[in-house]
Design a protein that fits this description.
By secondary structure, the protein is an alpha/beta fold. It is built from 10 helices and 12 strands.
Length: about 250
Amino acid sequence: MKINNISKSFNKKKVVNNVSFNLPRGKVISLIGPNGAGKSTVLNIISRLINKDHGQVSVEDLDLKKWNSKDLSKKLAILPQSNHSNIKLTVKELVAFGRFPHSGNRLTEHDHKYINEAIDYMELTEFQDKFIDQLSGGQRQRAYIAMVIAQDTEFIFLDEPTNNLDIYHSSKMMKTIKDLCHTFNKTIIIVLHEINFAAKYSDYIGAFKDGKLFKFGSIDEVFTKENLKTLYEVEFDIIQKDGKPIALYY
């Protein structure tokens, strides 16, 4: 996927300003930066949830807007930051929606295999017959992630996937994302506020500030005291643990 000079304004305020970068295939790419930096807007543009004002996004050298919706839904999956369903669905029924681009309403044995594996992967087997509105916020988040996993796409876009999760499930979520990427060759793009998760589990980081791409590169290239101070306007120390940097701010 190639992103070239995309821009977006809301109410005459430019929230994304001439952003360009390429997504390396088969990698985890985290988008970080302070609130209002443009991270989620960029994610929504490159997943075709919202229209850009200028620029181009292409997948396999074809402009994103020219893709047939059904074909695109087999290529990429998106989990927005806010997920609310007013329909009375069980966990298993929700996860089954991930197979809709492939089989529509006629689920096959092959589809059920993906559904059951996704539910098991997200540790939701004991909740699979419960309704979504009966779950805690964290359980509900895991159910939506399972739906995305069941969709089985090359590109996965996740906006704050650790929202509403406790420490155990946040860590489990990030490990799952890393495993999905490297075991099944998925390209996963995440918006994250927790920068240490980004440093530990990502292959590349895109750092945003004031609607612009401040820095894009490997963890070592982006995750420095100087870069983080510029982004967040606080002082940081960087320590190493198991070969990965950890940021301490004060």
